[in-house]
Design brief:
It is a single chain. By secondary structure, this protein is of the alpha+beta class. It folds into two domains: 249 residues, 3-Layer(aba) Sandwich (D-Maltodextrin-Binding Protein, domain 2); 159 residues, Periplasmic binding protein-like II (D-Maltodextrin-Binding Protein, domain 2, 3-Layer(aba) Sandwich), CATH 3.40.190.10. Helices cover 38% and strands 12% of the residues. It contains 20 helices and 16 strands. The strands form six sheets. A five-stranded mixed sheet has the order 2-1-3-13-6. Helix 1 packs antiparallel against helix 17 and helix 18 packs antiparallel against helix 19. The two termini are 18 Å apart.
Length: 517
């Protein structure tokens, strides 16, 4: 195993809990009784912790994606504010602003282009593009801030992990500690698999399910068996079709799995993408997918819960996914077929980060806050689950059950910080995090692991091809357009927008990176 995966496996829970000798170890929504009080406190080493501020609280505005605004978010914000004041003497006013996945990129580009003052935002390779935002000067470099204000966070991940998220030699986002490799899979409601005799062990590619879906549709005309939405459907299936995105699937530039030459291709000109578009359009015509799937947001989860779909694909198979997908399908029992091997690429390590805005008036406070989010389990679980007894209950086995009707269950633990500090959800096994680390260490590694593309020379072209993808790519991958007519037009639009220049720049940088190793 190469150094990076060994180091990822070595990430432990104990070291992540120490924050200047302190850790919030109580249940989510509670304060550790051993935590320091507000006045004259010191940690175990005798050094002073925090800095009291009895004036007006400092506002911290955090933008994030998910299922959209949580109805009772104000209660959670108030609990977090009080916990930070009581435990660390941090006097802040946290403002969580959540937008659904589909609208989040547009929302953030409006926020960024307007110069709005905010502090933190979630970013990734596949939504609110990290590289694009860095090259727009939207985020501040974090190297010095991490050393000065978040040494515990900096030390919780190995240098190789931080190096993977660098752009032009600097860190611009804090990676979420979670499952790192991707393994594409399809999930199916077990009731239907059993009824129609589907043997998931024989499903190796998505198209293997077509006959099964047709049977389901014939007997259930009101069901669209396969869930499709505007949330990057092809990006959840890239490994399954043998492609590795370089800076996100909406931007031209992929490697082909197993290609040691690291030749860069425009994925939208590949046969793999064309076949996927053809299949999705056929499924729309056969009634297996909604005709208007491109208008559906939230990964189609509301329709899955309502029983309108009985199968879906996702990018990352991981320990504990059974409980997550069961909840997505209205707590029905589900079965799985994996469509690829676990695979670790640079793109995986930038699949979820939190960055600090250039417009933040308090970047040091934002960095200290992110330090605690990633190292204090109590704070992290407040963000993930809300307040115990109000938004969730603790079961006899120590797992938690959330209640959507109580107004707070964002279900985005993987987005917020260090998921290895998360309470276990009902149905998750006690050893889920140990299994996750083991999977992190067993993945096949990309030949380009560690390569980071500097998109500065093609900033304008990336903006143009992104617009073309929004116009054509999403409707093609959800089956709403006939590829025979629309795909050539899409390819011409990409070429006119500068796709060839982007591919050439990527190849140049890849070749330089290879020669420097």
């Amino acid at each position: 195993m190469k150094k990076m995966t060994k180091q990822i496996v070595a990430l432990g829970l104990t070291g992540l809990m120490a924050v200047s000798g302190l850790a919030g170890c109580g249940k989510a929504g509670t304060t550790d009784t051993n935590a320091p009080s507000k006045s004259g406190t010191t940690n175990e080493t005798g050094s002073e912790t925090g800095s009291a501020d009895q004036g007006e609280p400092i506002s911290l505005k955090w933008y994030m994606a998910g299922s959209g605004p949580q109805a009772d978010v104000k209660t959670v914000e108030a609990a977090i504010d009080q916990y930070l004041l009581d435990t660390y003497e941090m006097n802040i006013d946290l403002q969580i602003i959540a937008t659904d996945y589909a609208n989040y990129p547009q929302k953030m580009q409006m926020v960024i282009s307007s110069g709005e003052e905010y502090d933190i935002c979630w970013t990734s390779s596949w939504n609110n593009n990290y590289y694009d935002n860095v090259n727009k000067n939207a985020f501040i470099p974090l190297d010095d801030l991490l050393k000065e204000n978040a040494p515990e966070l900096l030390g919780s991940m190995e240098t190789s992990v931080w190096d993977a998220v660098k752009v032009k030699g600097s860190i611009y986002g804090v990676p979420s500690q979670q499952i790192f490799p991707k393994q594409n899979y399809v999930v199916i409601v077990k009731e239907y698999a059993d009824k129609y005799g589907l043997d998931v062990s024989k499903v190796t590619k998505l198209s293997d399910l077509e006959d099964f879906f047709l049977q389901v549709k014939k007997d259930n005309p009101d069901i669209y068996p396969f869930a499709a939405s505007s949330n990057g459907l092809l990006s959840k299936h890239t490994l399954a079709v043998g492609l590795e995105p370089i800076i996100g699937l909406g931007i031209p530039g992929v490697f082909k799995l197993g290609d040691e030459s690291l030749t860069v291709y425009n994925q939208f000109e590949t046969e793999e993408a064309a076949q996927f578009y053809d299949m999705m359009h056929r499924w729309v015509e056969e009634g297996l997918v909604r005709k208007d799937a491109v208008t559906v947001s939230d990964n189609a989860v509301p329709d899955m819960k309502a029983g309108k779909h009985i199968a879906a694909i996702n990018a990352t198979f991981k320990p504990g996914v059974e409980a997550i997908e069961s909840a997505n399908f209205g707590n029905k029992e589900v079965v799985f077929a994996t469509l690829s091997e676990p695979y670790l690429a640079t793109d995986n390590l930038v699949s979820s980060l939190n960055a600090i805005s250039q417009t933040s008036e308090h970047p040091e406070v934002a960095m200290k806050f992110l330090n605690l989010v990633n190292t204090d389990a109590t704070l992290y679980n407040l963000l993930c689950f809300g307040v115990e007894g109000t938004h969730y209950t603790v079961n006899a086995d120590g797992t938690v059950t959330s209640d959507d009707s109580k107004g707070y269950n964002p279900n985005i633990d993987w987005m917020l910080g260090n998921q290895f500090n998360a309470l276990l959800r009902e149905g998750q096994a006690p050893d889920i995090w140990e299994k996750t680390k083991a999977l992190n260490g067993s993945a096949v590694e990309s030949k380009a692991l560690g390569f980071s593309f500097d998109s500065t020379p093609v900033t304008n072209e990336i903006a143009s091809v992104s617009a073309a993808y929004d116009q054509y790519g999403k409707i093609l991958e959800t089956g709403g357009a006939d590829p025979a007519q629309v795909l050539p037009e899409f390819r011409e639009k990409l070429k006119a927008s500068g796709a060839d220049k982007i591919i050439a720049e990527m190849q140049k940088q890849v070749d330089e990176w290879k020669s420097s190793k």
